[in-house]
Amino acid sequence: MLELRNIKKTYHTGDFSQNALKDFSLEFRKNEFVAILGPSGSGKTTLLNIIGGLDRYDSGDLIINEKSTKKFKETEWDAYRNNCVGFIFQNYNLISHISVLENVEMGMTLSGVSKKNKRKKAKELLKRVGLEKHINKKPNQLSGGQMQRVAIARALANDPDIILADEPTGALDSKISKQIMELITDIAKDKLVIMVTHNQELAEEYATRIVKMQDGQILEDNNQTNYEKEEKNSFKIKKTAMSFVTALNLSFNNIKTKKGRTALTAFAASIGIIGIALILALSNGFKIEIDNFEKDSLSDAPIIISEQAMSMDEETMMKMQGIDNKKEKYPSTNKIEIQQDMMEQVSHTNKLTDDYIKYLQKIDKKYLSGISYQKVTGLNLISYSENKGYELVDTKNGMMPWTLLPTNPNKDENGIIENNYDVLAGKIDNNVPGLILQVSNRNQIYSSTLKQLGLTEESITFDEILNKELKLVLNDDYYKEVGQYFIPNNDLETLYKSDNSITIKVQAIIRCKEEKEMLANNSGVAYTNALTELVISKNKDSRIVTVQQEKDYNVLTHQAFEEEKKENSKNTMLAFLGAESIPNSIFIYPKDFKSKDHITDYLDKYNDGKTESDRVEYTDMAGMISSLSGNIMDAITIVLVAFSSISLIVSSIMIGIITYISVLERTKEIGILRALGARKKDIKRVFIAEAFIIGVSSGTLGILIARMLIIPANIIIENLSSLPNVAKMNPIHAIILIIISVTLTMISGFIPARVASNKDAVESLRTE
Ligand code: ADP
Ligand code: MG
Questions:
Q1: What is the dihedral of CA 497, 500, 502, 503, to 10 degrees?
Q2: pTM of the model
Q3: Distances in whole angstroms, Cα of residue 97 to Cα of each of 70, 144, 434, 680
Q4: 118-159 pLDDT tens trace
Q5: What is the pLDDT averaged over residues 398-412?
Q6: Which end of the chain is more exposed for a tag (fewer CB within 10 A), N or C?
Q7: Mean pLDDT, the chain, integer
Q8: Mutation test of ligand 1: which of 19, 45, 199, 215 has the most ligand atoms closer than 8 Å to its C-beta?
Q9: How far, in Å, CA of 549 to CA of 180, rounded?
Q10: Residues with beta carbon < 5 A to ion ligand 2?
Q11: Which DSSP helix (H) or strand (E) runs through 707?
Q12: Do residues 190 and 219 touch, judged by C-beta distance below 8 A?
């Protein structure tokens, strides 16, 4: 069943070669107790290692179960060591950081015995060797004799057919040696035991056969055997495999023995994670903060569609800064390139047609909080005051014309006006012709506004404003036809008092809500949509409009129209006189940021397939500002994360080094595991598992520390900017960072793990 045929083994050290076994042949019975005797250096250990599959012979053959082992694969040797052979060493070779019980279990763990079964078996064996009271101790809490008993129990764990003992009593006194020998003799009853010893007396007392060796050869064999036929195929070899959980457990126990160092490593490795986590938390928080701020302040900003649109996309912005990527820089030609005029590049003339207005009117109302179709209709208003008398009202807020109050398309909810303004007095009704006065957050208005309303007092009450009357004069009363031309009627008093004139009042006084600081300083006059409609309906068929429609010159100024100049065109004049019903600009107020996207999508859809000149462009200030700030924030984040990543890489390298040191420290353990049948793969797993544990702990630690650092960081930010709780950790970022940390440490642990798995088993066992 076990036979060595002409085995040769030579060791080479530098130029020197040592023949440890010279043409060595020996047969063993299935069941005998063989003692190998011989002086030091005669090749006994080499013989055992070759029989046990720990070392490889150079030539000859080792026959197991009739089968040559010449073509054995690594995995076959591993399986053979694991469940055919049990090793007992002179220096016990127990794994020091796991318990006695776990040491005995290890071989079974490697062969995949269930937890329950291996525990039961290990306890039985420990009882058999008389150590049932010590199963939870660590090996270094036992005496030498007790350690050797553990080693014997371990050797028996997988029920091997062969026990190989290399000077098992070499380190024990004679009394303990006898006890151990008795134990081994007991085992030898139904196994093949091959024991190397120096001690001739013990060998003669216990062994059934003594083989004496010298210089790698047999000197004497007192019970030589002939090959016995009935012993064929008596060994069972079954494959082994260590699970990752076992590897984890093994590494975890090992790490427990060096807690301080592991904690420091994990902490150092976590610094990169802390940095990145903090940066992400801050940028995440700032983004949320900016988003909220923009939503608050910009959601009320309208999308503007006017006859002249400024397109502000990235490409035109670049062009405005003179950046044209398509053109060569500093060309060496003597030619000059012609560039489009700046305004032409960025502006687009929109044709606001009836069709377009109809298209706009079909916008889903649920996205709107207000819409206004501005028309440049002139308002012929006359005011009266005691000290100034009758005056024509200048309908301008500073430079800009009075504004049209946006209408809310959703009758039963608040619109843009209700959301942004408090009505201090009166009541807004967009269906009634009238004016709205906005005061600043300090209840101020400009003196020019006061004058427009025919009021002159230094201070004035809401009631006085609401009671004040202005008179709207219609075109036919105001413009007198004189031959080919028209002149305005100067007799304002008669016009004011005429029955034809329509009384217009300030309907309401409004002021921006306290939380809408952006609008705080605005003041001025707005008018209701009904007022424009009234003026247009009354004036569109007036005499001056009819005449103007026929003439190519301005009937008031006598000037010829210049169609290319917007402000001096016939259309503008007609619009001013109230003949034009198409608005010159449209303000669309989205309900919120999401609605705005729906609206801009809808507006973009209009342009699908349209030619350049038929396209209608809109201006979305809020969108421009937010995309700009978002981009800047992203850029800053990327740069900072890149910097912190360097520390992450440094810490990965550090973990590689630490794992490598651990490999050096655990060389002995590697040897023991190999002797117990661990595959190279299993050894690799042990160290990858160690890196994995460090990776998980450093990742988690990093996230925890970052989470704690966020608290003071937020306090500092709050002091600087009065924004509370800015930094917020996104849980997804946290999970991704832990995964990155684990991946990096596993990668850096991979090389040391390979080194470990390639270590020679015999060499490893020899290290101390
Ligand atoms: P024993 O166990 O009988 O004392 P060994 O089998 O350990 O003897 O060694 C046999 C011979 O081989 C010795 O001369 C020893 O020096 C040599 N030898 C053993 N292992 C190695 C090795 N790994 N490298 C070089 N020489 C070795
Ligand atoms: Mg030896």
A1: 30
A2: 0.63
A3: 37, 17, 91, 21
A4: 999 999 999 999 999 999 999 999 999 999 999 999 999 988
A5: 84
A6: C
A7: 86
A8: 45
A9: 126
A10: 45
A11: helix 680-721
A12: no
Backbone φ, ψ for residue 728 (5° rounding): -135, 130
Q: Note the pLDDT of residue 212.
A: 95
- pLDDT above 60: residue 428: yes
| Residue 492 predicted with pLDDT over 80 | yes
Nearest Cα to Cα of residue 85 among 672, 668, 671, 677: 677
Residue 39 in contact with ligand 1 by CB distance below 6 A = no
- The C-alpha atoms of residue 181 and residue 172 are separated, in whole angstroms, by 11
**Average pLDDT of the residues in 577-591:** 85
Cβ–Cβ < 8 Å for 562, 569: yes
Tokens of 618: 């809109």
pLDDT band at 502 (very low <50, low <70, confident <90, very high): very high
| Bridge partners, 33 (sequence order) | 193
Residue with more model confidence, 643 or 217: 217
> Which residue matches tokens 């610094």?
271
Instruction: Find out whether 85 and 2 touch, Cβ atoms under 8 Å.
Output: no
pLDDT number for residue 588: 92
Residue 44 near ligand 1, beta carbon < 6 Å:
yes
pLDDT surpasses 80 at 616: yes
Angle, CA 24 vertex, CA 22 and CA 30 arms, to 5°: 160
- Sign of the CA dihedral 348, 351, 357, 358? negative
Question: Rounded to whole angstroms, what are the CA distances from 272 to 260, 279, 706, 731?
Answer: 20, 11, 10, 18
Q: Distance from the CA of 198 to the center of ligand 2, in angstroms?
A: 9
Sequential DSSP letters for 247-301: HHHHHHHHHHTTHHHHHHHHHHHHHHHHHHHHHHHHHHHHHHHHHHHHHHHHTTS
- Decide whether any atom of ligand 1 lies within 6 Å of the 42 Cβ: yes
Asked if residue 321 has its Cβ within 6 Å of ligand 1, the reply is: no
- Count other C-beta atoms under 10 Å from residue 457's C-beta: 10
State the pLDDT confidence band at 228, using cuts at 50, 70 and 90: low
764 lines ligand 1 (CB under 6 A): no
Best residue among 8, 18, 21, 762 to mutate for probing ligand 1, ranked by most atoms within 8 Å of CB? 18
Does the beta carbon of 43 lie inside 6 Å of ligand 1?
yes
DSSP 493-531: HHHHH-TTSEEEEEEEEEEE-TT-GGGTT--EEEE-HHH
Residue whose pair of structure tokens reads 């793990």 in the numeric block: 753
The alpha carbon of 12 and the centre of ligand 1 are apart by a number of angstroms equal to 10
Closest CA to 727 of 701, 754, 709, 703: 709
Rounded to an integer, the average pLDDT of 158-170 is 92
